[in-house]
Structure formats: C-alpha cells, structure tokens
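Quick one, T. Sequence first:
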Amino acid sequence: MSLTVDEVRHVAMLSRLHLSDEEVRRYAQQLGAILEYVDQLKELNTDSIEPMITATASGNVFRKDEPRPGLERDAALAAAPQQDGEFFLVPKVIE
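Structure tokens:
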C-alpha cells in the first residue's frame, strides 16, 4: 500500500509537523514500505495462535500476599536527613 504526497501532508498537519517537500516525498516512500510490510503480515494464518497481552508469555509475577513485619521506627528514622527521635522533619510547604 503506497501513500500519496497529499496523505502524508494531511497526517503531518494532524501531527502538527512542518515538513519540507523533500521530507514529504521521503516519508511517503518510507511509510508506504511500512504499510506494505503490514499487508504481508495480514496474510499470515494466525487461526491457531492464542491472543496475548504481551509479546512474552511470562505469567503472573506477583508474590503471594502474606503479612510481613514492617520497618521499625528507629531503623526508618536512622536514614532520615532530619528527625526528632519520633517523627521525620520536613520543610514547611504551606503557610
């Protein structure tokens, strides 16, 4: 499937792209080649192929949802740039 120069100009206008005449001719050829390749892919028989969400069949990668102990307050505060022994201290952002 080839694209006309007018179709490329129309797509460029919709995309808010300003293309020179040389770019329009080049993109018409390149986009036409891409669409021809897509047409070739349409000819493949995919009746026995199961639809997929991703290109890799990885399955569920989530861990089991089991309760675990949280971080102790002293350990969390130890990494804070400012703290008062009980809470994180942060700069005031609201007057």
